[in-house]
Amino acid sequence: MKIGVLGSGQLGKMLALSAYPLGHQMRFLASSKEDPSSLLGNTFIQNGSQEIIEEFSKNSDVVTYESENTAVSIVKEISQKTMVYPSAKSLFTSQHRGREKSLFDKLNIPCTSYQMVNNLSELKIAVENIGLPAILKTATDGYDGKGQFLIQSDSQLDQAWKSMSGVESILEGFVNFKRELSLVAVRGVDNTHEYYPLVENSHHNGILRLTIAPAQNVSPKLQQQAESYMCSLLDEMDHVGVLTIELFETDNNLVVNEMAPRVHNSGHWTIEGARTSQFENHIRAITETPLGDTSCTYKYSAMINIIGEQGPIDKVLTLKNAHLHLYNKTEREGRKLGHITITANTLDDLNTSLEDLSDFMP
Ligand code: AMP
Fold first, then answer.
1. In the beta sheet, which residues pair with residue 304?
2. Residue 51: pLDDT over 80
3. Of 157, 243, 149, 260, residue with least CA distance to 194
4. pLDDT bracket for residue 91 (50, 70, 90)
5. With 90 as the cut, is the pLDDT of residue 356 above it?
6. What is the CA(173)–ligand 1 centre distance, in A?
7. What is the mean pLDDT of residues 257-264?
8. pLDDT for res 109
9. Is the pLDDT of residue 90 over 90?
10. What are phi and psi of 111, to 5 degrees?
11. Distance CA 354, CA 234 (A)
12. What pLDDT does 200 receive?
């Protein structure tokens, strides 16, 4: 099939790399010819014109997107000409933190207390209701911890509201979590579901730095609990493709933070660490073909993000259980330039390789 991707970053690139062995061709609606995936298919440069969108749609049998910040209006427009998976409903819900949280409430999925905020006086009321500490976040367009302010005392309210630049925001109760987990799953058009194991994520300055897969000390009950939340979301949105949920594990609960209607950074380990990667499973789902096995090929995998500067990448190539993925991006503070996957069958091997690559850790 001819698969069109709205966007052309590293996620589009990795989708393309898993689509070609299955015989598909790729098209990208890109912002520039220099984007990470633009050399991997026919590239249509997004210039805001109607013609480009029409050309892109005409040249695609099915269209998907790689970011929840994709305009819903474009997805709706393309849906009238060709198939789009996941649907505009998944996109519309997950690009707004308030809509996302009301869906969690509707489905009885635990999430932290929250209140929408449109001005300073509403923020003051929200703080009275929710208490401090709390996190103020922009309702849309936030990623990698951007557009967030941790409020610890009433004296910070002015500063917190100013940092939102007047846009609609959400105040969230601060969750005292033990660790951060995520669950990546995929749903096919025939309502089949496949789940990867829960993974543990470590962030620095709001950016994911390390994923350990599977997360250690996860009871079958915890995995089932996360899968049941995921299942309700997949079915409610009639989602087709990969969906990711980010979770906080507290002393006695599993709380959902947010979801992404797409392949996810915390699922990159699946390229080498699972029988079918998240990218291939997304492609299988959107091309309406059977989903692949999500079980692990190694006992342990880890994913280290390469952030800001490339670092000693030659060292990665000398390790026999490490795999390097570079996204062809120029160095810039806080930018995701690539990732490394480590695979191991013993915890000792995993820890030794993590130490060998400690230069890449903050
Ligand atoms: P987000 O953009 O919502 O994924 O937030 C980025 C990071 O901020 C998360 O990975 C957490 O480490 C932290 N964070 C976000 N929301 C909360 C919260 N309500 N309570 C505690 N930490 C949070």
1. 210, 340
2. yes
3. 243
4. very high
5. yes
6. 10
7. 97
8. 98
9. yes
10. -140, 170
11. 34
12. 98
Quick one: tokens of 325?
A: 């993925």
Q: Is the CB of 172 under 6 A from ligand 1?
A: yes
How does DSSP classify residue 175?
Answer: P
- Asked whether 14 and 26 are in contact (CB, 8 A), the reply is no
The mean pLDDT of the chain is: 97
Report how far residue 185's alpha carbon sits from residue 245's, in angstroms, rounded to the nearest whole number: 9
List for the chain the helix, strand, coil content (%; round to 5). Answer: 35, 30, 35
What CA–CA distance (Å, rounded) separates 129 from 37? 46
Distance of alpha carbon 80 from the chain centroid: 26
The span from the CA of 121 to the CA of 136, in Å, is 14
Mutate to test the pocket of ligand 1, among 115, 175, 253, 257 (most ligand atoms within 8 A of CB): 257
Q: 37 alpha carbon to ligand 1 midpoint, in Å?
A: 29
| Cβ–ligand 1 contact at 135 (below 6 Å) | yes
H/E stretch holding 53 reads helix 50-58
Q: Which two tokens stand for residue 98?
A: 């308030």
Band the pLDDT of 182: cuts 50, 70, 90. very high
Cα torsion 98, 99, 104, 106 to 10°: value is 120
**Helix H or strand E encompassing 232:** helix 220-236
pTM over 0.70: yes
276-326 pLDDT, tens per residue?
A: 999 999 999 999 999 999 999 999 999 999 999 999 999 999 999 999 999
* Residue position matching structure tokens 């490394």: 340
Nearest Cα to 197, choosing from 224, 170, 178, 179? 224
At position 79, the amino acid (one-letter code) is: S
Q: What are phi and psi of 329, to 5 degrees?
A: -115, 150
Give dist(CA 362, CA 330) in Å, integer. Answer: 19
Residue 144 has pLDDT above 80, yes or no: no
Amino acid at 93: T
pLDDT at 194: 98
Give the contacts of 23 (CB within 8 A, at least 6 positions apart): none
